């Protein structure tokens, strides 16, 4: 009876005073993140205080956060039993923002009472509606908990995910609105000193995110940064054109003789879909809303490829052996379009300035880019391999080709994988990356030098796991593309087994980001150099990865290596080989030979081995001399140079030092002079087979 009396008295007070208000009341309900735990000058820096400054005098924002509060009523510190809850009800807010759930990931709570979460959250929502039936309520997807949290791997990671799913379900069924506080902060671990509580900059991100949802002001109409004049859009497949606008705005898109209208949702997002369209152009794209008008000219439907990796993909055309001829040709390639995502600061052996370090932390590592039609000036600094690939494709397909290049010299495989994938599939690699043996010593040393002037213990660097996905992939994520060119591995060749685990994660990560489970990857096998003894094994590992992974093809570059330089200058040939592979496998040009001799099988005949190849027509030594590069071994595992004889069915190998050959390898030197090619002049890959069966 006491509870009923109290609630009745509260309702009478609310209704008596509600009509006299002139300011919109906002109640921020939550735990320590709302309260502002660990923030210096908390009352000024907590997100509700920042929200008040953004909303202005027409609003009154109150902070009803309580550190350690749980949503669960049977949790260790239920919010509905705290004085802040009663104060929030008495406040009789017009708008309520609830951010709870983080403390429910405690092992005292979720494992025992998780089944109560939906009912308990609905009860909390109803309590505010009882006080004010006209109240608008937003519930929040929780802010991140990062891997350095002490309970991350013992359950918090998984329970945090489960709670996020429940929050989304509640928003859909309880008639509340949803604010995502996870997405804008999940890529910013540097803003969470203890992996749980944001610093003042993080609190400001929270405030701005909440402000946008409460006011519907998302900054007006905008498209992702990959859209500009001169762009190429992927032909022959349906695609969605998506962007942001202010909540509820009517957005009209005029493209390809169609005029489509949609409305931005409560989160400001909108999307329209277009059917598959053949190559053509130039077209104009108009996107209009009350907040802004966007007009893009010289838009083409054609083929789009993403060109990524590390320094050998970044290697500029002006430094290639064929630069003079290629640059002269560049001015004639009007069908080739370039989107060059240049880095703010190179990962050279230098110390970065404080301003550069700050930009890196803010994920501003890639400079703003725009599409441009190929010319000598732009092509000079563009990827030499991507240029060769694109020029060949444009000639062969007779359509416009767009190349998006975002490589970073020295970058690691793990830096190109999204955080969620690593958190769930390989969390160990996230920990203490600058000291961990997972990272190559050279890469860790270079990162240490680049960030030497930083005083921030959470300073970020492009070689950090996840970083380049967050700074160099996110800006182009989902832009419709035919496939990916990938040339990377030098910074992971120290640990082959690690790379064999990471590379499939990278491919899966990007395919998820592009919502394309079959997104093709065309990779370049590492070249050859005399100072990297692990490279033969790594090259063979790359070959085996490509063989077993669906939609992954590999081209060979070891014949173009430099014994002393990790950056060989023969790049035109590599781009051409990638184009030949794509023309055959992706575009269906079956008459095109996509590869050099590819090891298929080996069998033993007495004292000889017979090795057969796919794409083995017209086997010959590239220099017209004897075939070099084969070795055989017996049961003792000791390899000896083999005499190779080209025959109708393949290559026969023997060595006077090996009586019972049962193993074979080819090109097994860091810098190899192996010279086997096929009729197309394409080279064979490094390979090893250690269990060659005897033929009866």
Summarize the entry for a quick read.
The protein is an alpha/beta fold and 696 residues long. It is 30% helix and 22% strand. It has 20 helices and 28 strands.
Radius of gyration: 30 Å
The SS-based structural class is: alpha/beta
The helix tally amounts to 20
Q: Compute the average pLDDT.
A: 96
Number of strands: 28
Strand-residue fraction? 15-25%
Please summarize the sheet with the most strands: 11 strands, mixed
- Uncertain stretches: 1-20
Query: What portion of residues is helical?
Result: 25-40%
The global form is globular
First-residue to last-residue Cα separation: 94 Å
Describe the structure.
This protein has 696 residues and is α/β, with parallel strands linked by helices. Helix 14 packs across helix 20 (572-585). It is globular, with a radius of gyration of 30 Å. The termini are far apart.
Structural descriptors:
696 residues; alpha/beta; 11-stranded mixed β-sheet; 5-stranded parallel β-sheet; 28 strands; disordered N terminus
Question: What's the topology here?
Answer:
Blueprint: H1 2-18, E1 24-30, H2 32-35, H3 42-45, H4 47-55, E2 59-65, H5 83-91, E3 95-99, H6 110-113, H7 117-131, E4 136-141, H8 152-173, E5 177-180, H9 200-215, E6 232-234, E7 239-244, E8 250-255, E9 258-263, E10 269-274, E11 280-289, E12 292-309, H10 311-314, H11 323-330, E13 336-340, H12 354-361, E14 372-373, H13 376-380, H14 384-397, E15 401-405, H15 419-425, H16 441-450, H17 467-473, E16 483-487, H18 496-513, E17 521-524, H19 535-548, E18 552-555, H20 572-585, E19 598-605, E20 608-614, E21 620-621, E22 630-633, E23 639-641, E24 643-646, E25 651-654, E26 663-666, E27 676-677, E28 687-689
Helix pairs in contact: 4-9, 7-8, 14-20, 18-19
């Amino acid at each position: 009876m006491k509870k009923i009396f109290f609630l009745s008295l509260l309702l009478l007070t609310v209704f008596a005073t509600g009509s006299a208000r002139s300011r919109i009341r906002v109640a921020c309900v939550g735990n320590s993140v709302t309260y502002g735990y660990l923030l210096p000058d908390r009352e000024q820096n907590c997100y509700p205080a920042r929200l008040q400054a953004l909303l202005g005098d027409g609003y009154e924002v109150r902070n009803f956060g309580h550190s350690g509060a749980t949503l669960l009523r049977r949790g260790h510190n239920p919010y509905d039993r705290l004085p802040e809850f009663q104060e929030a009800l008495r406040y009789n807010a017009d708008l309520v923002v609830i951010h709870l759930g983080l403390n429910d990931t405690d092992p005292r709570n979720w494992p025992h009472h998780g089944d109560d979460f939906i009912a308990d959250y609905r009860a909390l929502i109803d309590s505010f509606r009882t006080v004010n039936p006209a109240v608008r309520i937003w519930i929040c997807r929780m802010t991140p908990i990062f891997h350095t949290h002490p309970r991350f791997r013992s359950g918090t990671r998984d329970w945090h995910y489960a709670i996020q799913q429940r929050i989304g379900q509640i928003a859909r069924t309880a008639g509340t609105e949803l604010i995502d506080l996870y997405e804008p902060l999940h890529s910013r671990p540097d803003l969470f000193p203890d992996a749980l509580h944001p610093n003042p900059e993080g609190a400001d991100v929270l405030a701005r995110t909440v402000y946008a949802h409460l006011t519907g002001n998302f900054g007006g109409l905008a498209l992702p940064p990959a859209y500009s004049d001169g762009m190429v859009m992927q032909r022959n497949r349906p695609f969605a054109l998506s962007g942001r606008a202010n909540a509820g705005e009517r957005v009209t898109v005029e493209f390809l003789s169609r005029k489509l209208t949609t409305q931005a949702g409560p989160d400001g997002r909108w999307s329209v879909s277009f059917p598959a369209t053949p190559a053509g152009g130039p077209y104009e794209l108009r996107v209009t809303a009350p907040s802004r008008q966007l007009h893009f000219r010289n838009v083409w439907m054609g083929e789009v490829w993403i060109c990524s990796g590390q320094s050998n993909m970044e290697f500029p055309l002006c430094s290639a052996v064929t630069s003079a001829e290629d640059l002269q040709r560049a001015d004639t390639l009007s069908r080739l379009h370039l989107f060059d995502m240049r880095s703010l600061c190179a990962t050279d052996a230098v110390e970065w300035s404080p301003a550069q370090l700050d930009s890196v932390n803010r994920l501003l590592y890639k400079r703003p880019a725009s599409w441009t039609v190929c010319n000598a000036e732009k092509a000079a600094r563009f990827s030499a391999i991507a240029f060769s690939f694109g020029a060949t494709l444009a000639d062969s397909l007779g359509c416009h080709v767009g190349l998006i290049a975002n490589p970073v010299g020295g970058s690691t495989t793990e830096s190109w994988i999204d955080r969620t994938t690593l958190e769930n599939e390989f969390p160990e690699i996230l920990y203490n990356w600058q000291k961990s043996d997972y990272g190559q010593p050279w890469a860790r040393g270079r990162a240490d030098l680049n960030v030497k002037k930083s005083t921030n213990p959470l300073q970020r660097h492009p070689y950090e796991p996840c970083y380049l996905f967050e700074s160099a992939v996110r800006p182009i994520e989902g832009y419709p593309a035919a496939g990916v060119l990938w040339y990377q591995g030098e910074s992971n060749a120290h640990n082959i087994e690690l790379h064999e685990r990471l590379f499939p994660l990278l491919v899966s990560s990007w395919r998820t980001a592009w919502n394309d489970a079959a997104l093709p990857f065309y990779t370049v096998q590492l070249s050859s150099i005399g100072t990297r003894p692990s490279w033969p094994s790594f090259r063979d590992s790359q070959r085996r990865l490509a063989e077993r992974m669906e939609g992954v093809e590999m081209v060979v570059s070891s014949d173009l290596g430099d014994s002393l330089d990790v950056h060989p200058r023969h790049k035109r040939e590599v781009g051409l080989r990638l184009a030949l592979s794509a023309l055959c496998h992706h575009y269906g040009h079956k008459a095109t030979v996509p590869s050099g001799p590819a090891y298929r099988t080996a069998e033993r005949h007495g004292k000889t081995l017979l090795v057969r190849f796919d794409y083995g027509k017209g086997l010959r030594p590239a220099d017209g001399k004897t075939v070099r590069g084969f070795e055989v071994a017996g049961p003792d595992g000791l390899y000896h140079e083999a005499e190779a004889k080209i025959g109708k069915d393949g290559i026969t190998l023997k060595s006077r030092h090996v009586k019972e050959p049962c193993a074979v390898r080819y090109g097994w030197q860091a810098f190899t002079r192996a010279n086997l090619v096929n009729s197309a002049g394409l080279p064979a890959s490094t390979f090893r087979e250690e269990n060659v069966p005897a033929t009866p």
